[in-house]
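Subject: Protein record for review, amino acid sequence with backbone structure tokens
Concerning: The relation between a protein's sequence and the shape of its backbone.
How to read it: Take the token row as a discrete description of the fold.
Enclosed: The protein record, placed directly beneath this head.
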Amino acid sequence: MSQSIRPNYGNGCFADLPKLIQSCLTDQPAPTGLNGVPDGLLHKYDTVILLMIDAFGWELFQRFAERHPFLQRLTQEATLAQWTSQFPSTTAAHVTCIHTGLTPGQSGVFEWEYYEPTVDAAITPLLFSYGGQFVRDALKPTGVQAEQLYPAQSLHQQLRGQGVKTHVFQHREYTPSTYTDWVCRGAEMHPYTTLAEAFYNLRQTVKVAPKPAYFFLYFDKIDALSHYYGPESQQVEAEVEGFLYLLERALIEPGRKEFSNTLVLLTADHGQMPVSPQTTIFLNADPRFAGLERFLRRNHRGELIGPGGSPRDLFLYVKDEMVTEAQTFLADRLHGRADVRLVQPMIEEEYFGPLPPSPDFLARVSPLVILPHNEQTVWWYEEGRYSMRFYGLHGGLSAREMGIPLCMITFD
């Protein structure tokens, strides 16, 4: 069994960021007991900037902090803490959290794909599409509305009600989109094409924006290249070098002259685990798992439901009356490669966030989850829909996936 990391909700988890940010811009009390965060740092600022760097997890951050001159200087000047991702360690759960203030168990948006009762099918919530599809807005013809799939709560609307103007900088590829338009209600949107453009426009907006103000910037290219080439690849090394160059030259160094009473937070949603498509176990194509389908739920059209999650956290929609039998069937065949866990005890142990979970989450989550060991993957194969082509993945509970940095830089 691989060593797993529990999400550190309330004491230093990504899910603690929304309240931390609110406390630094409003009269809301500052959270206490956050790992590595001095109480004196959490006072009121005119400006808070959050840089969410997808997949720039603790391991990758530390690898560069040990040898990169700028990051070495920055970590000496700044306050650096090791926090945890939420579970699942997936982007869908984290972008939803940062825009709503809700954990996966509260928001119900817990993975890249999962079963959605409203349409009686698996969906990919960030794309507003069906599971196994990589096109946007395939759900529009069904008539389902964004408010039926995404949580009503909005951090941006909360902040606006407290007198704080909010700004969101995201890539033009998905700004606007059905998902973005809903979760970013209340924010002023700033689509960008390049990171240099984003940092420059961010600085210019900080100069003129009425205070107090909150700025959120999301950058996804380290994650994308980690998927395609692996998190330890030279392509990822080059991308991180380029990111750090722009961070220094286009934001931090100019910010020393331009920013005042400002807190900059740099973090990630998760890390990544090196994996190989060549070693993936496809449950429905491997003869060892013949007979698996008898355990699985079907929708009203007679189609198998799922899969949910990813090859690092496969949520399997097993019939309620066959959960124990299915767990034994899978655990016997995955011994030494993956753990097969009951989801209900994980809910009760607050892996998905504080209790109680929302009705939406309970309606969408499966009774079993398969968590492959380090560098292992377990998935589903369906021509044109489900395959495995990545060399880096996340979603599970390993230290590589769950460890994230929180780097806090103040500008007086």
Observations:
- Residues 114 and 308 are 4 Å apart (CA to CA).
